[in-house]
Amino acid sequence: MTLSMYQASVPFFLRMLANLRAILEKGEAHAAARKFDAAVLVQARLAPDMLPLARQVQIASDNAKGCAARLAGVYPPRFEDTESTFAELLARIDKTVAFLKTLQPGQIDGSEERDIKLPLPNGTLDFKGLPYLVHFAIPNFTFHVVTAYNILRHNGVPIGKTDFLGK
Amino acid sequence: MTLSMYQASVPFFLRMLANLRAILEKGEAHAAARKFDAAVLVQARLAPDMLPLARQVQIASDNAKGCAARLAGVYPPRFEDTESTFAELLARIDKTVAFLKTLQPGQIDGSEERDIKLPLPNGTLDFKGLPYLVHFAIPNFTFHVVTAYNILRHNGVPIGKTDFLGK
Question: Is B156 exposed, middle or buried (0-12, 13-18, 19+ CB in 10 A)?
């Protein structure tokens, strides 16, 4: 097997989203066990000017589907960012996973030199596929997964590195 | 250009370590500006049972040099984990970068099927090179860089996503 643009993206996103899903389930279970409102965790932040857990999950979803779609040259599904419960965040992950699974290796492999245009509020970032994947999409996606983990860990949810990395 | 095991590892680690270095410098500058002991940040944690900033940086260093060395089939340099100041953590990053720069693409490319043995306290994890890089080393390394960022952000250091992703 040779490393390829598909191998370095879709299976990576799928595995990390599955781990994030399991971490969120542990967060919800922790709130139930301690008898506090799970919405407190969904809206928890690490700093007043950082985004809350719900947004971390939404952005991780956007990064995964957006990256894979851009590399494949297709449009990703658009989700409305209305999730406010753990159940809705889990469903958001499931919708993201379902889209990622529609993409075939042949659509993404060979996208190293593909022109990627990333629309941002203040302009457009232009990349080639390879540096976009390795130096932007992978660290950006992982940032939001780790920050979701850290928000829950900071709030006492019993999770560890194995939950983050998966088995 | 074709994505390769080298392209997906060493340049990624180098860029993220440079970003981590700049983030730590902002942490040190923040402590100086607010006139508190920078050692408070070096020992700061997100949870009582999480590792402090210094250990996050040491482990990110270990993950980067360990991954690249294993893929190349060489031994990484061993560092003693004695850093207790920002200056020492920056030097640790510099030593890690210097080692990574000694590795040539030809040593790492083609390592997809290489047997990787990862010694752990309670046994050995066996991988092939490709899943080791994509599903273990990249997320594990990034976890510690993001957690270092989150520790500083949680403690009021003025950093943002651009510092994490680099320019």
Answer: middle
Q: What's the confidence (pLDDT) of residue B31?
A: 98
CA-nearest residue of chain B to A110? B2
Nearest CA in chain A to B4: A3
Tokens matching residue A125? 């970032």
> pLDDT (tens digit, 9 = 90+) per residue, A138-163?
999 999 999 999 999 999 999 999 99
Helix, strand or coil, per DSSP, at residue B120: strand
Our CA-based measurement puts residue A75 at a distance from the nearest CA of chain B, in whole angstroms, of 23
State the average pLDDT for chain A: 97
Specify the pairing of strand B123-128 against strand A115-120: unpaired
Structure confidence by residue, pLDDT tens digits, A52-81: 999 999 999 999 999 999 999 999 999 999
Under 8 Å CB-to-CB from B160, ≥6 apart: which residues?
none
Give the pLDDT confidence score for residue B14 in this predicted structure.
98
Q: What is the ipTM of this complex?
A: 0.97
Residue B60, token pair as written in the block: 């990110």
CB of A119 closer than 8 Å to CB of A134? no
